[in-house]
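Dear colleagues,

For the upcoming journal club I promised to circulate an example of a predicted protein-ligand complex. I picked one with UD2 because it came up in last month's discussion. The inputs are reproduced below in full, followed by the predicted structure.
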Amino acid sequence: MTQYLVTGVAGFIGRSIAAALLARGESVRGVDSFITGKRANLAGLEAMDFIVGDLTDPAVCERASAGVEIVFHEAALASVPRSVADPVNTNRNCVDATLNLLVAARAAGVRRVIYAGSSSVYGDTPTLPKHEEMSPNPVSPYAVAKLAGEHYMRSFTRVYGLETVTLRYFNVFGPYQDPTSHYSGVLAIFCRKMLAGEQPTIFGDGEQSRDFTYIENVVQGNLLAAAAPADKVSGRVMNTATGSAITLNQTFEMLSGLTGYRGKPAYAEPRQGDIRNSLADIRLAGELLGYAPEVDFREGLRRTVEWYRQGA
Ligand code: UD2
């Protein structure tokens, strides 16, 4: 039986991957430090073997990797503004943690590591859509850290023969995403605020655009990346997104309809380190994994609002 490890399992992406694996009857271990992960997100994952620990500690990586065949590495300090405020901590939790995990995975005989990459590595180049052949051009310390992780993945494939796959996620959203921190993803924040009748704030003019990707598509990408033949995918990097983008102003309008919020957004200064436009070319993941988004933005947003409404 394949033993899977999901790092960052109390975060919303990690918990969603673990839930999908458990639903298939797989054997799953999860690890989380609860720096940003939430204990409540572990509800429903009781069948999983869970370790509380921080991947910046090599001993935790060792324990977590023992007997594992495939790792989904979702743990990170995921936020551009958090990295602008504290680049050292972002580096520690994204880069040091990833390197520790790779070292432990190799020592434990793990076959494959699938890495949560980020669209932020493309930076603010005008070319759209972003495709994998483009040179990365990270702006924020967060983007630099996520890119360093990618390079470590490829290095471990080239030097040690560990199978690695990087999936560059584009603005993932959906149920279980923490809406309570000002470092949270914009859709989680807007859903919480607008359902509560509070005014959301748009940083900048609202004409920035994102390829917002519903969580189920990302889970699907990960399961495909775990199953794909090594000669096709090992050492590769691919976008995981929908291939369409929407502005924040348009998103606000859609959310007004879904939440019943009647007010206008507040506008504030653009955020430091922000990217203006982001849109993915998803053909490579289609070719290598057979990936195609199953849930579009509108449907994903509808399900997400319903989830927050139930919780509210
Ligand atoms: C980046 C990555 C994304 C993922 C994420 C992890 C890009 C294009 N995307 O997302 O793939 O790695 O980092 O955190 O680099 N905003 C508001 N009001 C708010 C909060 C945010 O207007 O209350 C704006 C924000 O200024 C930005 C947009 O919404 O223009 C999206 O912000 P975000 O923090 O949700 O995600 P982003 O794009 O930094």
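Two points we might discuss: The pocket of UD2 is lined by residues 78-80, 118-120, 169-171, 185-186, 189, 201-203, 208, 210, 248, 271, 274-275, 278 (CB under 6 Å). The chain has a mean pLDDT of 97.

See you all on Thursday,
B. R.
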